[in-house]
User: Fold this.
Amino acid sequence: MWLRHCGQVSALRRLVPPHDHQCSTFDIVTACLWRCYTRALQLDPNEEVFVICAVNVRSKFNPPLPSGYYGNAIGYPTTLTTAGKLCQSPLRYAIKLVKETKAKATEEYMKSTADFVVSRGQIHLVMTRSFLVSNLTSIKFEDVDFGWGKAAYGGQAKITYGKHLLPFKNKKGEDGIMFPICLPASVMERFLNELNSMFKDEKHVGKCNL
Assistant:
C-alpha cells in the first residue's frame, strides 16, 4: 500500500485538531493505520490490542552511543488499549498512544530491558493483536547504488508481523510512503475501505490502492 505525501498524508494531517499539530508524520500515519487495521479485524470491543514502536535509542544514552556504532540499538516499547476504545475514539487518541509509546524508550527503559533479558533469557515479542511498526522513511535505501543505478525498492523481502514505513517514488515521480502489509482478502478489503473512508471529504485525494 502506498500513501502519497501531497495527497493522503497531507489529508491525514488535516484531520488532526490544530492544538494537536505537534506530531510527526510517523505519529499520524501509524495511528491511522493501526486504527484502520484494528477495525478491519472486527475484534471484540473488550479485546486488548497493542501498538509496538521500534525506536532507535542511540541518542537516548548519556553519553550517547559513539558515532559509527553499528550494533543493534533498538527499543520496542509497547502500549495497550482495548479494541473498542481505539476504534471508537477520535484519531487524536491513537496519535496520543503512539507518541506515548515512543517516549517510553528512555535510557532507564533500555537498561531495565537489558536486566530483564539477563535474568530471564531471550524474550520474544507477543504479536497476537499487536501492531509493530518501524520508520524507515529516512534510511536512504533508494540512494544506494552498486553500479546498476538507484534502487527500485529497499525494504523487507518477506512481510511478517513487523510493518515498516518505507520511502517510495511512483512512476509519476511522486514521493510517498509505502506500507507493505499482508492480510486475508476479506480483512484487506475492510482495511482499505476503512482507510479510504477517512478521505471521503477530501475531493482531490485519490483512493488508496494495493
About this structure: The first helix runs from residue 5 to 14.
